[in-house]
Amino acid sequence: TNIFATTPVVEGLDSLKVSQNKLQQVATWKRIPAVVVCSVAPVERQKVVKTLDMWKKLGYVFYSGIYFKDSMAATICRSTDLQGYIIIDLVTQETFGKDDDLAVTHFYIDTDTREIHWAKIYLKINVEERVLEHEFGHALGWMHSKKPGHLMHEKWLRGGWETEGLKKTIK
Question: pLDDT tens-digit profile of 122-139?
């Protein structure tokens, strides 16, 4: 079966309660994140721009410009200080569990403030339609939805472009 990662890897999530039955955003960015695409990431600039545009229409804000496979991106991708970045990279053996996962997103949240500090999206080669948009949802703090046709549905074949509930609310 083609599925997304069963659950995003959320560091700092131990004390948060996550609903399995409804769409839930477990954390948000307090700062505007910058998007970084590592040199080996299997994605084209146009796809990243299209994905960001989709999320911008839902009210999310990203740092203007993308660090796309350039020297700054290389520096950030090698760094251990990922604070403030959403990074897109190629999967490694260490980041993947099951062979049928299409992608996985790791993100760190502060459980006291529910602030996302960084996110890293790992993609397989030959990225399927909707995968990057779905993984950005995780990078923005959203967990999986059980609603058929929803962008955040955990099973790629049962998902779709429905974005109900994902619109950013001002807090």
Answer: 998 878 889 999 999 999
